[in-house]
Amino acid sequence: MRTLAITDFKAHALQVLGQIAETRESVVVTKRGKPLAEVIPYSPDVPRPGKLADALVFENDILSPLGEDMWDACK
């Protein structure tokens, strides 16, 4: 994994993104020597963090988990 100062990344962003796509190697962008961001190559097979739809369970019928009697008691 290669590191690159933010000013260099800004000046050469298109070139750096092209290299990332070609080599499939990620780049850490730094600001004053401290890591700020990581630019990684895109991969459609990798699940993305932050997708809420992958974290939820969808129920088609919301009444059956409680049962008819319990549903009426919860009103």
- The largest sheet has its strands arranged as 1-2-3
Principal-axis shape equals elongated
Structural class: alpha+beta
**Count of helical regions:** 4
- Briefly, what CATH class? Alpha Beta
Mean pLDDT: 83
How would the blueprint of this fold be written?
Blueprint: E1 2-5, H1 6-11, H2 13-23, E2 27-31, E3 34-39, H3 52-55, H4 68-73
Descriptive keywords:
75 residues, YefM-like fold, three-stranded mixed beta sheet
Explain what this protein looks like in three dimensions.
By secondary structure, the chain is α+β, with helices and mostly antiparallel strands. The chain is 36% helix and 20% strand. The protein contains 4 helices and 3 strands. The protein has helices at residues 6-11, 13-23, 52-55, 68-73; strands at 2-5, 27-31, 34-39. It has a 3-stranded mixed β-sheet. The model has no long low-confidence stretch (mean pLDDT 83).
Question: What would a concise description of this structure say?
Answer:
This protein is of the alpha+beta class. Helix content is 36%, strand content 20%.
